Amino acid sequence: MKAQTLFYSLGLFALAFMSGCNAAEDDCVIKNEGMESMHLEGITLFDDNGNTKHIRSLIADDHFERAMGFQHVCPDAVKETGILFVYTEPIQGSFHMSNVKAPLDIGFFDGQGTLIDVLRMDVYTDDAQPLYSPNKPYQFALETPVGFFEESMLSPGKSRLVIGSL
After folding, report:
1. Are 113 and 138 in contact, with CB atoms under 8 Å apart?
2. What element of type H or E holds 160?
3. Which of 22, 33, 111, 125 would you label with 100, given CA atoms 20 to 30 Å apart?
């Protein structure tokens, strides 16, 4: 149930904005410039059992927004929202976690909306700075707090993003 309502409650996002970041997270912001230009939109997903999931997500649909993603955003703010990266056609590319302050899950969807892969992306360390990509081209990528896909019963090959909901 938590995953279903996670994105409905962007009030916590606003609350975090008003209260600021923790002192330990002194190098972070609540929203970066890219997020400021993204729009918030309702999207629809079908889970593994065909049940409908409605969530609200920021939409990154231009180069600048996609390049910024969650960079420099405080961990508490990252835990309260998601970003759907939208491309005009299928691509093969990688995501990174440079300057991202909290781990994320990322789900990759093909041009028909089928979920093709879900990966956990960890915060970079001095020893590990991997890139993340599926083995197939994708047209949409949804970055969420860790656990969202599992809690929402969204699995590769079984779940889909409803393209018409965008």
Report:
1. no
2. strand 160-161
3. 111
- Of 142, 128, 7, nearest in space to 87 by CA: 142
User: What phi, psi does 83 have (nearest 5°)?
Assistant: -130, 125
CA angle 141, 105, 117 (to 5 degrees): 55
| Four-residue CA torsion sign, 33, 36, 39, 44 | positive
Query: Could you tell me the two tokens for 78?
Result: 């990252």
Coil, strand or helix: which one is 1?
coil
Q: Which two tokens stand for residue 107?
A: 């789900």
Nearest CA to 141 out of 152, 153, 132, 150 is that of: 132
Instruction: List, for residues 21-61, the tens digit of each pLDDT value.
Output: 443 456 899 999 999 999 999 999 999 999 999 999 999 99
The beta-strand segments (E) located in 6-114 are 39-46, 52-60, 83-91, 104-109
DSSP state of 132: B
